[in-house]
């Protein structure tokens, strides 16, 4: 019995195959495999494909059609074998009854046929094959890898394969260090493709443009962004202390919220401003580029001095719009301008808790000056503070205790029973990310 074609369609693994002088040699991936075929007129091809006698003999190879074009307008129904002797007597008898002629046909498989994993496993030497890199994150058109040191000699080849095999990827980069800088950016090197690092990424029905080398972006936070935005009502005024390029601020504004959005990184501020304009929420978002502590100290005063856009009126039906234009119906009155902050968002998990002391006395006369904000901020109308943080405690109860103590130390006040501790994700084996949400105690904000 001859070998079935599936067994010939396997690339070697762990053999350093497909490279020439350390560079990808696509020609080496070309394979020509002869298969047995039944030559029939076009109208007969369907009959053969449906025949029970041939069912087990038909070709069954991913991405290969069972029928190919033959000479003289004929069709070739392909089998999984190369040799006529491998067909069952029933199959042969059926083919004879249909006057099908058995011929040999060549199938060509080239570099494009193989999956990214198959090519990478073939290229790597044996000792690196078992744990070959398989995953990567995608931000806009950039595929972003985090290669371990032993794979670095193959980094450009791996990058090239990922580029070739993923049509939406135009640039492949490798992360060079851990995020440790103040602005949470990491350096990266180009492995393959265009040296173009300005991406456009969609999230929560908004489009974000930014230079991936210069600002923080993490697509894994998508659900966390969505979760907090769902907590805001469209009447709310939000203060986003570490706004980045706007993944909380801009979708919140799309929902109808007014937003004060801040980021100290000038590049984040530049793209935040651009994204506000591109998503057409300029009437609702005001952007700042200052230190988070200073932003918190000024936010209440700014909202009081220059209230933000009023709540949008409810959507008006077309017929009503016509009547309003014709003067037959009064236009709905705009809501009151928004001057009371309902939520603070503080997503800088490494150090956000350390900024909480900025809320101490923030509404006191010493900070608010002549403004009397005591009527606006009552016990029940104090803003909610959502602070992201890391903890080394893996057990939820211990994590909660650790975070609670650190927050209380900064605000100088006990957290109420209504404080919530939401687990966001595991960042590293011993590092969990949480979001603690609590209502700013009035006594803290008005403390002198
Ligand atoms: C973890 S990122 C979060 C960005 C965005 N909110 C998000 O969810 O993707 C933290 C942001 O805080 C900014 N940042 C760091 N230190 C800051 C500071 N002292 N004041 C204001 N922003 C700061 C960084 O530039 C970065 O954009």
From TrEMBL:
GO cellular component: mitochondrial matrix; nucleus
Organism domain of life: Eukaryota
Principal EC category: transferase
GO molecular function: tRNA (guanine(37)-N1)-methyltransferase activity
GO BP, one annotated term: mitochondrial tRNA methylation
Pfam families cross-referenced by the UniProt entry: TRM5-TYW2_MTfase (PF02475), TYW2_N_2 (PF25133)
Catalyzed reactions: guanosine(37) in tRNA + S-adenosyl-L-methionine = N(1)-methylguanosine(37) in tRNA + S-adenosyl-L-homocysteine + H(+)
Record domain SAM-dependent methyltransferase TRM5/TYW2-type: where: 136-442
Entry keywords, A to Z: Cytoplasm, Methyltransferase, Mitochondrion, Nucleus, S-adenosyl-L-methionine, Transferase, tRNA processing
EC number annotated for this UniProt entry: 2.1.1.228
InterPro entries, per the entry: MeTrfase_TRM5/TYW2, SAM-dependent_MTases_sf, TRM5-TYW2-like_MTfase, TRM5/TYW2-like_N, tRNA_Gua_MeTrfase_euk
Protein's cellular compartments: Mitochondrion matrix; Nucleus; Cytoplasm
Binding site for S-adenosyl-L-methionine: 225, 263-264, 291-292, 347
CDD domains in alphabetical order: AdoMet_MTases (cd02440)
Family designation: Belongs to the class I-like SAM-binding methyltransferase superfamily. TRM5/TYW2 family. Belongs to the TRM5 / TYW2 family.
Function of the protein: Specifically methylates the N1 position of guanosine-37 in various cytoplasmic and mitochondrial tRNAs. Methylation is not dependent on the nature of the nucleoside 5' of the target nucleoside. This is the first step in the biosynthesis of wybutosine (yW), a modified base adjacent to the anticodon of tRNAs and required for accurate decoding.
Assembly with partners or alone: Monomer.
Official protein name in the record: tRNA (guanine(37)-N1)-methyltransferase
